[in-house]
Amino acid sequence: MFKSSNQMTLDFSPYSALYGILIPKDSFWRKLQEEIDFNFVRETLAKNYTIDFGRPGVDPVFMFKLLLLKTAFELSDRGLIDQVRVNMEMKYFLGLSPEEVNIVDPSLLSKFRSQRMKDPELLDQLIQRTVEYAIEKNVITRRQSMIVDSTHTNARFQHISPREEIIRRCKKLRKAAYSVDKSLHDKMPEKSKMNTGILEDAMDYSQNVIRVIEQNEAAASHPSVQESLNYLKEALNDTENELEYSKDQDAKVGHKTADNSFFGYNLISPLYTQEALIKMKT
After folding, report:
1. With contact defined as beta carbons under 8 Å apart, do 16 and 23 qualify?
2. Among 8, 10, 60, 224, which lies 20 to 30 A Cα-Cα from 201?
3. How much is the pTM?
4. Cα separation of 45 and 41, whole Å?
5. Cβ neighbours of residue 56 under 8 Å, at least 6 residues apart?
6. Cα–Cα nearest to 168, from 90, 25, 271, 21
7. Any long-range contacts for 73-78 (C-beta under 8 Å, 24+ apart)?
8. pLDDT tens column, 120-131
9. CA quadruple 131, 132, 138, 140: dihedral positive or negative?
């Protein structure tokens, strides 16, 4: 069902001893990798994979771990894969050998979210089980577990809407661009369309911001701006796909309000995921 992935090569790498030298024993990601059995992810998602047809998929445990890293470090799919290639702590958590550079194509992450994580509660559930096991194995402290419990309780009532997340990423992009070229501030589109409360208006505004920045070659080529561009484009692309799906299915849930969530999967990682992982890894 699942093809062999690169994480299985760690035991055979002549460079695996580097991890013992470079990664502290109290590293959160090291402890999570060593103490938690992630087979529950594979078992939970097995029903979302076709057993008899098509090419074998990448191990869902590997993909889920990528989502954890993506959320904790707030990276685009492409930015995440670029980081994994050079970050030893991430490689160890994923079970990759130190010399591995062929991770996965970034597009597989989008497919994994849309095809394997359609249930909007599924990511929440998997994260919750991960944290429960981490508490059980003392990967996180009692104090941190209280933070996690509180964050999780609040997160169920604070899911960010697609519109809010697009605006958040757009602001992040503008800030990155201004740090490179302050003159871009005067070239940006009017913000009135961003504040109408309509999802499509926020998307149009963001597309205009992208066009302005990409016309400035020096700014657009800066690494921090490139990452923010990818991060915003990713949200816009996923949102467009979901809007099309909703229209095709004659969806009853409207998508033009400021705080409505209509995704068949969570484009926006739950606050529980983001806050808990950030607090646990520090």
Report:
1. no
2. 224
3. 0.72
4. 6
5. 1, 2, 3
6. 271
7. 74/231, 74/274, 75/227, 75/231, 76/106, 76/227, 76/230, 76/231, 76/233, 76/234, 77/106, 77/107, 77/109, 77/110, 77/230, 77/234, 78/106, 78/227, 78/230
8. 677 778 888 888
9. positive
CA distance 93 to 91: 5
- Each residue's pLDDT tens digit, 146-204: 444 444 434 333 456 788 889 999 999 999 999 999 999 999 999 888 888 899 999 99
- List CB contacts of 29: < 8 A, sequence separation 6 or more: 89, 90, 92, 93, 281
For residue 45, what are the contacts with CB-CB under 8 A and spacing of at least 6? Answer: 60, 64, 116, 117
Extract the tokens encoding 7: 């994480």
* Extended beta strands in 126-228, E state: none
d(CA 269, CA 132): 18
Q: What six digits make up the tokens of 17?
A: 């001893």
